[in-house]
Write a structure and sequence with these properties.
By secondary structure, the chain is of the alpha+beta class. The chain has a domain of 59 residues. The protein is built from 1 helix and 5 strands. The strands form 2 sheets. A 3-stranded antiparallel sheet has the order 1-2-5. The protein has a two-stranded antiparallel ribbon with strand order 3-4. Strand 1 and strand 2 form a beta hairpin.
Amino acid sequence: MDKEITFRFVRSANYHIVVANGAWGGMTPRGELKFDLFFEHVELPEAISYLSTPDGLGPEVSRTPAVTPITREALIAVVMTTENAENLGRWLLEKVGQQRKKEAGEPETKGS
């Protein structure tokens, strides 16, 4: 006989959303996967100078610093077993596949 199991989803008091557009990591000495989720962006410059023209603001003439580096701001570290990593990878690929089909106008399938 099949037994029904219900999962209840609750958010902890520390729950928050992390916006990440990249990841960096590898295997730990204990064989677990550890990766940092990061937000890659360009920092605002300290100062920018423009020429003044009779019509208003003219072209940019200088910037401090002259070259603004790309920052990878590590937001959170995740450690999981390889089995959990495989399950997460399959789940992510499934969700991406569903979105691609939706974007292509294919009908949705039940149970997704």
